[in-house]
Amino acid sequence: MRYDLVIFDNDGVLVDSEPISNRLLADYLTELGFPTTVEDSYRDFMGAAAHTVHDVIAERYHGARLPDGFDEDFHARVFAAFQEQLTPVPGAAELLKRVRETGVRYCVASSAHHAWIRTALTRTGLSGFFTEEQLFSAQDVGRGKPAPDLFLHAAATMGVAPDRCVVLEDSPLGVAAARAAGMDVYGHTALTPAERLADATGLYRDTAEAAELLGL
After folding, report:
1. Family per UniProt (predicted)?
2. Which of 8, 44, 78, 123 has CA atoms 20 to 30 A from the CA of 102?
3. Among residues 54, 63, 124, which one has the least CA distance to residue 93?
4. What three-state secondary structure class fits 58?
5. Closest to 13 in 3D by CA, of 102, 81, 106
6. Which of the listed CATH numbers 3.10.20.600, 3.20.20.70, 3.40.1280.10, 3.40.50.1000 matches domain 5-17+86-213?
């Protein structure tokens, strides 16, 4: 393998959470008087940090604010759904095992909060592949994707130069962030059309193709 660090996005790359979280987000925003479809949620919020939801609502609705506790309430709804519905992305455990067996360093860098990341990995049985030191959140840096800060922070903490890193992503925001960080990035096209990930170094449809791109 030609990389020294593999950085995994979490939602949509390791855990199949995007359909759950985007459906619940669309429902919650609509309930609050901000009509949103699931397609809107995918387009506007997939891969984005939590503050993006607040920013978009304020911009579109003339400074409107979401209620206090919105993030906590939304997370509670998502976590409850995770307990019954969340599954790993098919082949995710096998891919993580193969990366670990090579001895190459790896980590997660996600726009989601730390509690979200830990809950998702635990529910899907993937938490055993990671220590706390391998989990990075946009909470750690303040600015989420498409800013490069999160990926640069993960690489620096893991002690690897950006040009020796590769990112696995499923959102245009994540691809843009990896590119801005000076990293190669492979785009997962299971939920996102390939043309929206056209700036990626390469594309993959499943974890078997991801393993090939990573040289496993």
Report:
1. Belongs to the HAD-like hydrolase superfamily. CbbY/CbbZ/Gph/YieH family.
2. 123
3. 124
4. helix
5. 106
6. 3.40.50.1000
209 is written with which tokens? 């193709």
Both tokens assigned to 189: 């096209």
CATH code, 18-85: 1.10.150.240
Asked if residue 1 has pLDDT above 80, the reply is no
Percent of the chain at pLDDT > 90 equals 88
Q: Are 163 and 151 in contact (CB under 8 A)?
A: no
Type of residue at 65? R
Q: Catalytic residue numbers?
A: 9, 11
pLDDT tens by residue, 80-130: 999 999 999 999 999 999 999 999 999 999 998 999 999 999 999 999 999
Kindly report the pTM of this predicted structure. 0.89
Residue 109 · residue 144 · CB < 8 Å? no
Label residues 162-178 b or e (16+ Cβ within 10 Å = b): beebbbbbbbbbbbbbb
